[in-house]
C-alpha cells in the first residue's frame, strides 16, 4: 500500500469522525448512549463510503515452486502380456509413484499408450498396436519448452507409426525401461508379407516375403504356402549368424474366382518358444474380367490378326472373328469390333439397337460411309474415293484413361479415303490426323460416351503396321498391346450410375479399424446431404446380427467397426427414404501383430536413449534410475516470486457494511423519534 493511500485513509478516518461528532455529539443537547451509538454508525457509514472511493489495494509477495514434470509412460499393448511382463510393469509404476523423494522433487505424470495415448487409464494390456511415435507427439504438446525426463516402460516393439527414435523433443531426456526377457531366444519369423489384394483369373500374382532368424547357429528351414490345407509352394531357406534376414519373391496362380485364402508357414525341426510368428494368413480376391469380344468383318485383312493377338495378350480377353452372315446371337459379347462396315452390316447395327453393346468401329478403303452416316450419330463423313495416308498426332489433354505417347507420330500412316470428318457431338479424341506434318482437322482415334453407351472410332486401316513398328522400336509388342488393351478395357466396361455407392475391402486383419464408406445420390444424381443410411452386419459364423447408423463424413457417410472377431461377415446398407439397398461381404482374418515378438527390441531402445541423452534401464536397475533422477541438477524445482494485489476490503463487503450501518441508524432514529 502506498504512502498516499495511507494518508487518504487517515484523512477518511478524521473526516468520518468529524462528521459523526458534529452530527450527534457537538449539536446534541445531552450526550447519552443513543447519541454515541448513532455517532458510531454514522462514522462507519461515512468511512465505508470514503473507502469505496479510495479503493485501497494491498500488495502481497509470495514464492511459488514449480516442480519439473516426470512423465512415466507405460506400454499397454498386448505384446507386454505375451512377453509376460504385465505384472512387472505395474510394480515398477507403483515403485515410482510411491517414492516420496521423487514426489517431492517432480510433478509425476502417469500416461499409457497402445495405438492411442492415454492419461490416467488403468492398464489392461489389450491394445492391438504399439505407437511410440504417438507418445512423443502428445508429450510435445503437453510439456512445451520444458526440460524434463521421460521414463518409458516398453518392449520397444512398435507396430504402427513413424520411427520413434527421432520423434521425441530435444528438451526431453528419455530413459527406456526394457520390459521382457532380453535373453536371445531361437526364433523364426515371417517379418513381413506383401501381396496384392486383387488378382486376375488365370494370371500369376507376386507374393513378397521377408523372413527373419533370431539365433547364431546355421539352420535349414522350410518356407511353404498352403491353400485349403494343400501345399502349393515350398522351398528350403538357410540362415546363419551373418544371414539372419532373407527375402523371397514367389508367383502364385490365380486359378479360381473369389477371395482365395492362403497360409504362409516358416518351420524347422528345432522347437521354438513362439510359433505364432511363423505363420501369416493372407488373402487375395481373384477377379474374372474375362471379356468376350467379336471382331466382325466381311473382308480379309492383316489388321484382324494383329487386333486379335493384341487383345488376347490379356488372358482375360477372348476374341472371335466373324463374318456378318455367321452372326446368330450377339448377346454373349461384351464388345463389337466392326471392321470396315459395308452394306451387309446393316443387320448388325439393327440387332445392336436393342442390345446396346459398345462398339469399336474401324474404317478404311472398303468402308460404306453412307451406311455409317445412317447408323451412328457421333461423326458425319463426307468422303471421296481418293486414298490418303494419315499420320497420327497424340493429344495430350486426353483423359478417359491413362495413356502415354508411345511415339504415335513415328508409326506408319493409316490409309483412309480423303474427305471431311465432322464431330456431331461431344467426343474425346486421342489421336488426330496430319498429312505431311499439317493438321487436317480430322480425328484418327476418338471416343464417345452417351449415358452407359461407349463407342470408339479408328479412322484408317493398316494398324497392323503400328504393332510391327512398336516391336522394332521396343523389341517387344508390349507397349502397343497395352495401348489396345486400355481401349478394350474402356469400351467393355459400362459405368452405370447407381444411387447408392458403397466402398469397402474384401478382407481385413483382426484388430484393424474397419471403415465402410457410402454415398447416396438423388434422382438428379446429386450427392444427398441428408440421407439416412444404416447397416445391418451379420457374423456368418455365430449368426449374430447388429445394426448401426452411418455418420456424416467428408463427401459422404461412414461407419467404423472396432474389435470385430475373425470370421466371415455379410452386411446390407439401406437408405431409409428411398429403400435403396447394397449387399456385400468381407472377412476378418485372424492376425495379431502384437504376438509376433519373442524379445524386446533393445537395440532400438538403445538408439532412442542415445538420441535423447538418456540411458537404457533394465527392471533390476530401477533404484539406480531413481537415484539418478534425484541427483541430477537439471531437474531442480523452479521458484517464482509472485506479487498479488488485492483490495483491502472487498467492495461487496463494504457495501453490505454501509447498508447495515445506514439501516441501523435510520431505525434507531425512528425508534427514538429523531426523524
Give a short overview.
This protein has 675 residues and is an alpha/beta fold.
Describe this structure in words.
This protein has about 675 residues and is an alpha/beta fold. The chain folds into five domains: about 5-60 and about 645-670, no CATH class; about 70-180 and about 600-635, Rossmann fold (3-Layer(aba) Sandwich), CATH 3.40.50; about 185-285, Immunoglobulin-like (Sandwich); about 290-490, 3-Layer(aba) Sandwich (Rossmann fold); about 500-595, Immunoglobulins (Immunoglobulin-like, Sandwich). It is about 25% helix and about 35% strand. The chain contains 14 helices and 33 strands. The strands form seven sheets. A nine-stranded mixed beta sheet has the order 16-15-17-18-23-22-21-19-20, covered by helices on one side. Helix 1 (about 5-25) runs antiparallel to helix 2, helix 7 (about 300-310) crosses helix 11 and helix 10 (about 465-475) crosses helix 11 (about 480-490). The model has no long low-confidence stretch (mean pLDDT about 85).
Amino acid at each position: 500500500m502506498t504512502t498516499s493511500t495511507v494518508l487518504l485513509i487517515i484523512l477518511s478516518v478524521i473526516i468520518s469522525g468529524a462528521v459523526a461528532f458534529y452530527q450527534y455529539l457537538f449539536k446534541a443537547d445531552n450526550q447519552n448512549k443513543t447519541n454515541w451509538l448513532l455517532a458510531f454508525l454514522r462514522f462507519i457509514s461515512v468511512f465505508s463510503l470514503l473507502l469505496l472511493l479510495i479503493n485501497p489495494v494491498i500488495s502481497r509477495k509470495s514464492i511459488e515452486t514449480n516442480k519439473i514434470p516426470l512423465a512415466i509412460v507405460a506400454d499397454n499393448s498386448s505384446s507386454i502380456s505375451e512377453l509376460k511382463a504385465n505384472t512387472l510393469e505395474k510394480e515398477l509404476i507403483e515403485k515410482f509413484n510411491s517414492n516420496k523423494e521423487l514426489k517431492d522433487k517432480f510433478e509425476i505424470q502417469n500416461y499409457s499408450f497402445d495405438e492411442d495415448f492415454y492419461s490416467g487409464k488403468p492398464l489392461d494390456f489389450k491394445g492391438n498396436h504399439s505407437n511410440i511415435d504417438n507418445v512423443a507427439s502428445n508429450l510435445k504438446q503437453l510439456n512445451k519448452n520444458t526440460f524434463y525426463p521421460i521414463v518409458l516402460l516398453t518392449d520397444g516393439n512398435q507396430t504402427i507409426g513413424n520411427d520413434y527414435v527421432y520423434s521425441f523433443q530435444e528438451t526431453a531426456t528419455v530413459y527406456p525401461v526394457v520390459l521382457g526377457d532380453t535373453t536371445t531366444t531361437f526364433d523364426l519369423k515371417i517379418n513381413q508379407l506383401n501381396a496384392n489384394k486383387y488378382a486376375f483369373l488365370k494370371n500369376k500374382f507376386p507374393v513378397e516375403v521377408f523372413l527373419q532368424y533370431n539365433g547364431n547357429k546355421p539352420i535349414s528351414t522350410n518356407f511353404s504356402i498352403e491353400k485349403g490345407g494343400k501345399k502349393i509352394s515350398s522351398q528350403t531357406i538357410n540362415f546363419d549368424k551373418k544371414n539372419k534376414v532373407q527375402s523371397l519373391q514367389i508367383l502364385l496362380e490365380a486359378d479360381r474366382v473369389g477371395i482365395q485364402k492362403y497360409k504362409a508357414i516358416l518351420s524347422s525341426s528345432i522347437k521354438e518358444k513362439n510359433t505364432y510368428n511363423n505363420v501369416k494368413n493372407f488373402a487375395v480376391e481373384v477377379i474374372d474380367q474375362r471379356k468376350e469380344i467379336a471382331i466382325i468383318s466381311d473382308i480379309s485383312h492383316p489388321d484382324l490378326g494383329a487386333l486379335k493377338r493384341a487383345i488376347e495378350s490379356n488372358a482375360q480377353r477372348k476374341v472371335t472373328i466373324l463374318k456378318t452372315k455367321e452372326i446368330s446371337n450377339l448377346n454373349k459379347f461384351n464388345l463389337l469390333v466392326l471392321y470396315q462396315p459395308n452394306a451387309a452390316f446393316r443387320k448388325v447395327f439393327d440387332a445392336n439397337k436393342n442390345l446396346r453393346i459398345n462398339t469399336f468401329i474401324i474404317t478404311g478403303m472398303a468402308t460404306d460411309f453412307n451406311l455409317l452416316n445412317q447408323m451412328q450419330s457421333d461423326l458425319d463423313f463426307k468422303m471421296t474415293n481418293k486414298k490418303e495416308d494419315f499420320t497420327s498426332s497424340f493429344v495430350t489433354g486426353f483423359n478417359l484413361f491413362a495413356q502415354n505417347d508411345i511415339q504415335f507420330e513415328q508409326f506408319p500412316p493409316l490409309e483412309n479415303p480423303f474427305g471431311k470428318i465432322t464431330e456431331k457431338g461431344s467426343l474425346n479424341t486421342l489421336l488426330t490426323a496430319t498429312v505431311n506434318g499439317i493438321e487436317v482437322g480430322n480425328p484418327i482415334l476418338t471416343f464417345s460416351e452417351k449415358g452407359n453407351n461407349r463407342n470408339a472410332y479408328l479412322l484408317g486401316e493398316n494398324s497392323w503396321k503400328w504393332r510391327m513398328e512398336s516391336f522394332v522400336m521396343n523389341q517387344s509388342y508390349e507397349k502397343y498391346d497395352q495401348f489396345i488393351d486400355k481401349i478394350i478395357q474402356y469400351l467393355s466396361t459400362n459405368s452405370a450410375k447407381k444411387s447408392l455407392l458403397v466402398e469397402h475391402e474384401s478382407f481385413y486383419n483382426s484388430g484393424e479399424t474397419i471403415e465402410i464408406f457410402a454415398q447416396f445420390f438423388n434422382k438428379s444424381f446429386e450427392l444427398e446431404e441428408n440421407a439416412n443410411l444404416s447397416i445391418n452386419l451379420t457374423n456368418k459364423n455365430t449368426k449374430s446380427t447388429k445394426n448401426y447408423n452411418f455418420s456424416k463424413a467428408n463427401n459422404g457417410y461412414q461407419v467404423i467397426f472396432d474389435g470385430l472377431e475373425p470370421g466371415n461377415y455379410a452386411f446390407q446398407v439401406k437408405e431409409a427414404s428411398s429403400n435403396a439397398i447394397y449387399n456385400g461381404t468381407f472377412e476378418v482374418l485372424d492376425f495379431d501383430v502384437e504376438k509376433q515378438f519373442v524379445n524386446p527390441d533393445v537395440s532400438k531402445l538403445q538408439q532412442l536413449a542415445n538420441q535423447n541423452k538418456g540411458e537404457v534401464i533394465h527392471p533390476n536397475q530401477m533404484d539406480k534410475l531413481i537415484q539418478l533422477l534425484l541427483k541430477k541438477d537439471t531437474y531442480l524445482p523452479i521458484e517464482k516470486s509472485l506479487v498479488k494485489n488485492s483490495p483491502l476490503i472487498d467492495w461487496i463487503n463494504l457495501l453490505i457494511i454501509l447498508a447495515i450501518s445506514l439501516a441501523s441508524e435510520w431505525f434507531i432514529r425512528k425508534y427514538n423519534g429523531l426523524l
